[in-house]
Amino acid sequence: MIGYIRILAGKGTMKRSCMTDLYDDHLHEECGVFGIYGDREAAEKTYLGLYALQHRGQESAGIASTNGTEINLRKGLGLVWSVFSDPNAMPMLKGTAAIGHNRYSTSGSTDIINAQPISIISKAGKIALAHNGTITNAKELRDELQRMGSIFQTTSDSEIILHLMAHSNKESFLDMFIDALARIVGSYCFVLLTPEKLIAARDPFGFRPLSLGMSDGAYVVASESCAFDIIGARYLRSVEPGEVIVIEKHAMRSVMLPPAPKIRQCIFEHIYFSRPDSLVFGEKVDKIRRRLGKQLALEAPCEADIVISVPDSGNTAALGYSKSSGIKYEIGLIRNHYVGRTFIAPHQDKRKLDVKVKLNPVAGVIESRRVVLVDDSIVRGTTMRQIVQLLRSRGAREVHVRISSPPICHPCYYGIDISTRTELIACTHSVEETRDFIHADSLAYLSTEAMLSTVDNGDRYCSACFTGEYPTPVPADFHKYQL
Ligand code: SF4
User: Fold this and answer.
1) pTM, whole model, 2 decimals?
2) Which of 76, 303, 338, 466 is the most exposed place for a label (fewest CB within 10 A)?
3) HSE-CB for 412 with a 13 A CA cutoff
4) Residue nearest atom 1 in ligand 1 by C-alpha distance
């Protein structure tokens, strides 16, 4: 029922077997999406937008653009710069509207075939699509669609929406899309491109963020507002939960989907995923992260000489902790910024690699000091254990770990890669047992109530990975390779 437009694969085909992930002990982001309509440099601006959103996904990147007739697509495995390092990449994407995607897989393998945007030709015409989020009823929908004759090209949940559109009885493109969205459970921000229009949609729960901006008369949408800053676009507002924005003929209109019982924006966007210089869900991430640190200092005070952070994830919360506690903030750990998210170790057993590749303590700051070490979260506990050990080896007298979120005890089904409870130390260890495991002198987490007090309208946030209270039915046997 649908045909696929030829993929021009970019460079960047590193094999995961020779890499080790130095962030294994952090949650992984989901994806970043970007779209622009009405700009002669649409693809170039999408490239810059994706560059600003690189932290949301490093497995693959892609841009689809239109000149009003065709949709051209380039995508590849790797970082944005490497996928588009070929000087021929941008000229072939010439057009006045474009969408882009950075991927970290929460459904489907790391494979070029799963890179986005996905581009197809169907009864609805030529479409390119990029998705941030996770469809929790993907398995049932895919089984049903396959029984009806659909042939899938990817193992990603994102493709399902295109098949649902192809099976819809509705007449117009927008109605087909809305009809397909009605079948989907889970989280999504979609950006769709056709030769005539750009469509952006955010799920009715509002799990993942999407912002709307404007640049020299061109409309822009992006997962975070830092993607607007890099192209000089002006932030207009957050796309509302359940809002579908249609931009065509240089005008914008909105359609609202039926509302969810509750709005549930991901609190982890503020704690860790989003850049501190972004506006997310209409609020400044930096401000909220400082408040998290301040609340942490009030709830878990500590007798210490200095506050340091685990860079970069703990930086802003550590500043908040320092301000509220009156304990001096110092830069006690230096991060090697030239070590990427993945570290290539050609001749080394990756088990022997440790956090020293990435972080080094400043001995003059640490020596003989009682240290408060602030980070945003603990997942497995293995990295935190190494950091505490590293600080002690450089002469820290005491190490008190403070975490600016509650213990993560439950998997996320809405676009964050926490799929099993066994990955989570807080699931199997008490706070005291975790403290013992990481060899800290003390360990404290922020409470859920204090965390939610740092945002406007805390009752509009999802905190299911801390509380286990999921806002939607969740599948019993969900895992990222299920398709
Ligand atoms: Fe965010 Fe946690 Fe909810 Fe997932 S479960 S959407 S990570 S708050």
Assistant:
1) 0.91
2) 338
3) 28
4) 266
The two beta strands, 442-445 and 398-403, are parallel
- Distance between CA atoms of residues 287 and 317, nearest Å: 9
Q: What residues are in contact with ligand 1 under a 6 Å CB criterion?
A: 207, 266-268, 412, 414, 416, 462-465
Query: Measured over all CA atoms, what is the biggest interatomic distance in the chain, rounded to whole angstroms?
Result: 72
Catalytic residue among 31, 266, 302, 462: 31
CA distance 191 to 203: 12
Residue 214, strand partner residues: 219, 234
Q: Which atom belonging to ligand 1 lies closest to the Cα atom of 470? A: 5
Mean pLDDT in order along the chain per 10 residues (483 residues): 44 36 58 97 98 94 97 96 94 97 72 91 93 92 93 89 95 96 96 98 98 96 98 98 96 97 96 96 98 98 98 95 98 85 49 75 96 95 94 97 96 80 88 98 98 97 96 75 60
Is 462 among the residues known to form the active site?
no
Q: Omega before 312 cis (within 30°)? A: yes
Inter-residue contact 416 to 27 (CB < 8 Å) = yes
**How far, in Å, CA of 221 to CA of 42, rounded?**
12
| Among 379, 460, 463, 472, residue to substitute to test ligand 1 (most atoms within 8 Å of Cβ) | 463
Residue 264 CA to ligand 1 center (angstroms) comes to 9
Instruction: Give residue 417 CA to ligand 1 midpoint distance, Å.
Output: 10
Alpha helix ranges (H) inside 361-453: 363-366, 382-393, 425-428, 431-438, 448-452
Half-sphere exposure for 309 (CA within 13 Å, toward CB): 21
